[in-house]
Amino acid sequence: MNKTWDELAGYQPRVLKLLANSISKKRLAHAYLFEGKKGTGKKEVSLLLAKSTFCENLDGFKPCGHCRNCRRIDSGNHPDVHYIEPDGLSIKKKQIQELQEEFSKTGVESNKKVYIISQADKMTVNAANSLLKFLEEPNRETMALLLTEQVHQILNTILSRCQTLSFHPLPSQTIRNELVKSGVPLHLAGIASQLTNNLEDAIELSRNDWFAEARSKVIKLYEALLSRKDQAIIYVHTQWMPFFTDKDLQERGLDLLLYLYKDVISIQVGQEDAAVYKDQMESLRQHALQITQQSAAGHIETILEAKKKLQSNVNPQLLMEQLVLTLQEG
Question: Which domains are assigned to the chain?
Answer without folding.
Answer: 5-169 (3.40.50.300), 208-329 (1.20.272.10)
